[in-house]
Amino acid sequence: MFGRRRCRRWMVGVLCTSALLLAGCGDFFNKDTGGGGGGSTGSYIYVRTQSGVLVGYSVSTAGALATLSGSPNQFATAGINSLAVTPANTFLYAGVSGIGVYGLGIASTTGVTTLINTTALVQDVAPSALTVDPSGKYLLVAGLANGAPAVGEYLINSDGTLAEVTGSPISITFPTGTDTSNVSLQNIVVAPNSSYVFVTLGQLGMAPLPFNT
């Protein structure tokens, strides 16, 4: 884990980023190989809104969408900033502005989501962006911790609950004299080889944080 190491390097550049509105599940981003399931492709997509609504859809082989049972769901009273799905398509995590991160289980045959806990699983970082590492073992949350840019790291338990890794959250540090009043944590991704976590910071560029699962 990167919990004991802070990032002291940063890059400044022109970044073009946009809010992540969708989170795929099942075979949505992969060609469906068919087989079993009574004709179900096992493909789903989830959409979040800034009014706190979460909507799930099934995706046909022709690309048509059908609303899942229980959708749309007035999931929160604040905007949902980001969604992340585990590689095994078993859990969906939603970062709610100013509140925290909620976990939902995903039914394998229907795609319907169910809250793991009625309260937020993560509350020490105000979430702006979420991602799950390639191994599917860790949820990484970019946001503000005590008003400062940071990344929280959480072990994903077998039931979808989260356990904070020792040393989390990790502060993102900047060179002396940097004006961070307009910092905007917009996206977080993990390198394919899991060596680094990258966080976009709006006009301040991008921060690389060493990562070791």
Descriptive keywords:
five-stranded antiparallel beta sheet; 213 residues; disordered N terminus; mainly beta; Methylamine Dehydrogenase, Chain H
Polypeptide structure, described:
The chain contains no helices and 17 strands. It is mainly beta and 213 residues long. A hairpin with a 5-residue loop joins β12 and β13. The chain is globular and about 50 Å long. 39% of the residues are buried. The model is unreliable at 3-21 and 26-41 (pLDDT under 50).
Quick recap:
The chain has strands at 22-26, 43-48, 53-59, 65-67, 73-74, 80-85, 91-96, 100-106, 113-115, 126-132, 138-145, 148-156, 162-164, 170-171, 187-190, 196-200, 206-210.
Largest sheet: 5 strands, antiparallel
Q: Averaging pLDDT over every residue, what do you get?
A: 81
**CATH architectural arrangement:** 7 Propeller
The figure for the number of domains is 1
Helical run tally: 0
CATH superfamily: YVTN repeat-like/Quinoprotein amine dehydrogenase
**What's the gyration radius in Å?**
17 Å
The secondary-structure class comes to mainly beta
> How much strand?
35-45%
Low-confidence stretches: 3-21, 26-41
The arrangement of helices and strands along the chain is EEEEEEEEEEEEEEEEE
CATH third-level topology: Methylamine Dehydrogenase, Chain H
What spatial form do the alpha-carbon principal axes imply? globular
Q: In total, how many beta strands? A: 17
Q: Helices and strands in order, then pairings?
A:
Layout lengths: L21 E5 L16 E6 L4 E7 L5 E3 L5 E2 L5 E6 L5 E6 L3 E7 L6 E3 L10 E7 L5 E8 L2 E9 L5 E3 L5 E2 L15 E4 L5 E5 L5 E5 L3
Antiparallel strand pairs: 1-2, 2-3, 3-4, 3-5, 6-7, 7-8, 8-9, 10-11, 11-12, 12-13, 12-14, 15-16, 16-17
